[in-house]
Amino acid sequence: MGVSSSQTAAALERTAAIYERVRSVIPAMEWTVFADDVDAILRLKKERKAVILAHNYMRPEIFHGVADMRGDSLALAREAASVDAEVIVMAGVHFMAETAKLLNPSRTVLIPDPQAGCSLAEAVTAEDVRLMRQRYPNTPVVTYVNTSAAVKAESDICCTSGNAKKIVESLGAKQVIMLPDKYLAQNVARETNVKIITWEGRCEVHERFTAADIALFREQNPGIVILAHPECTPEVVAAADYSGSTAGMIDWVGQHKLARAVLLTECSMSDNVAVSYPETSFVRPCQLCPHMKRITLANIRAALETMTHEVTIPDAIIPAARRAVERMIAVK
Ligand code: 13P
Ligand code: SF4
């Protein structure tokens, strides 16, 4: 059923305060297309007793328009664990929805598009982890949260980009296996004395940035500050001014009141951060994550209308997978 112009006018009026916040990054014409979905999602959240958790890579109309909690993978995991609402809609990728389900199993967890995957999660299987254990006996396995629940279940502990070094060192081991992200593992290895055995996984978005890109940014924008996600190559991280998780990058921009910055990470981050820090001007090399971009206002609305797609995890792997995530959350 189409949306009548009087319905759109009413939705525009009800969402006017939200639009005020994002007007610097969303043209008014585009908001006339979004307003009806935003309005419907706000109503459906109440009807379904639902909350929306949104990763920092969500488009601004989702991130600032309908999300209840926002953050990096670590923050979303922590938030998911304490959600009281009956339904959690994960505006993020599948492994994030699985992590929410592991930490809050009595809630219904929905993902608006079950195909929203991750090149890192695709890079390793539970069988691979078992083989690594055989090859390196008595070596703890630290698994990035960007993995399936089945892989987490084979691991000793999880980590995110926000706590990787701390988690590796918390084990008190001389060497650890860290998978699947080769570059994150190499970036941690540069900062610790623990020997790190890596795996051949890579983020298809962050691997595209190069040290030559950084040189060019500096040449074309004197004084620019460069922030890189630790899924970038070690050469890129070494050439940047700061490296940290998506939340770490946002905090750094805020704390240092930067005049001009570039965030070497997924495209929507700069739009979302620009809303919060209008004094910083961002140079925006646009690298989209095709998996994150599967999540739209339209499929969030459909998820709440039809209560799909519910995320479930086989009973046999839940206890071990949850243990690995909870062990990570417990590290202070
Ligand atoms: P963060 O935990 O830093 O948000 O990273 C998640 C991710 O998928 C980065 O590509
Ligand atoms: Fe996975 Fe990379 Fe997309 Fe993050 S940006 S979800 S690591 S493919």
Summarize the structure.
This protein has 332 residues and is α/β, with parallel strands linked by helices. It contains 16 helices and twelve strands.
Explained architecture:
- The chain has 332 residues and is α/β, with parallel strands linked by helices.
- The protein folds into 3 domains: 5-118 and 292-306, NadA-like (Rossmann fold), CATH 3.40.50.10800; 126-202, NadA-like (Rossmann fold, 3-Layer(aba) Sandwich); 206-283, 3-Layer(aba) Sandwich (Rossmann fold), CATH 3.40.50.10800.
- Helix content is 45%, strand content 14%.
- The chain has 16 helices and 12 strands.
- It has helices spanning 5-14, 16-22, 28-48, 60-63, 73-81, 94-103, 126-135, 149-153, 164-170, 182-189, 211-220, 234-239, 246-256, 268-276, 297-306, 318-330; strands spanning 50-55, 69-71, 87-91, 108-110, 141-144, 157-159, 175-179, 195-197, 225-228, 242-243, 260-264, 281-283.
- The strands form 3 sheets. A 4-stranded parallel β-sheet has the order 2-1-3-4, sandwiched between helices. Strands 6-5-7-8 form a 4-stranded parallel β-sheet, sandwiched between helices.
- Helix 4 links the parallel strand 1 (50-55) and strand 2 (69-71).
- Helix 1 (5-14) packs across helix 3, helix 3 packs parallel to helix 15 (297-306) and helix 5 runs parallel beside helix 6 (94-103).
- The radius of gyration is 20 Å and the shape is globular.
- The protein starts with a helix and ends with a helix.
- The model has no long low-confidence stretch (mean pLDDT 97).
- Bound molecules: 1,3-dihydroxyacetonephosphate and iron/sulfur cluster (SF4).
- 1,3-dihydroxyacetonephosphate binds at residues 56, 72-74, 146, 160-162, 203, 229, 231, 245-246.
